[in-house]
Design goal:
By secondary structure, this protein is mainly beta. The chain has two helices and nine strands, in the order ααβββββββββ. The protein has a domain of 100 residues: Metal Binding Protein, Guanine Nucleotide Exchange Factor, Chain A, CATH 2.170.150.20.
Length: 148
């Protein structure tokens, strides 16, 4: 099933500062059920199943909820974790982090800075030079290809 169309506002640079707020019903209407569960309820898609796990298409990964630029395909790599992984976010306006103490673990959650959508987690076991692995759920993303 194709994901929602990326809003035209997503074609702007990632310096979007306006925040997006919608009710739970508005998000539920806009998103697929799997995207709603991950993005709005902090769920996780099963490993090795996501649309973008093996994707090598050049482009920019956008937030499925608001179209904010999150990650560049240039920063994507195969971490063998089961989820799309990136070495860095697209910019300072892309993601926020918070301590996540759910499921008996302490992790660093990453969310879209613009709309608060849950994306996944960032770990300190990525490749050099930064050493970070942004582990992201595919359903939280939409790829804007370079030709788009």
């Amino acid at each position: 099933m194709a994901g929602p169309v990326v809003p035209e506002v997503a074609r702007k640079q990632s310096s979007m500062t306006e925040r997006v707020q919608q009710s739970e019903d508005e998000w539920r209407e806009k998103l697929t059920e799997p995207a709603f569960e991950v993005c709005r309820r902090k769920g996780t898609e099963p490993p090795f199943t996501g649309e973008y796990y093996h994707c090598n298409t050049p482009g920019t990964y956008l937030c499925v909820c608001c179209g904010n630029e999150l990650f560049s395909s240039d920063a994507k790599y195969d971490s063998h974790s089961g989820w799309p992984s990136f070495t860095q976010a697209a910019g300072a306006d892309s993601v926020s982090t918070a301590v996540d103490r759910s499921h008996g673990m302490v992790r660093t959650e990453i969310s879209c800075l613009r709309c608060g959508s849950h994306l996944g987690h960032v770990f300190e076991d990525g490749p050099a030079p930064g050493g970070q692995r942004y582990c992201v759920n595919s359903v939280a993303l939409r790829l804007r290809t370079q030709s788009s």
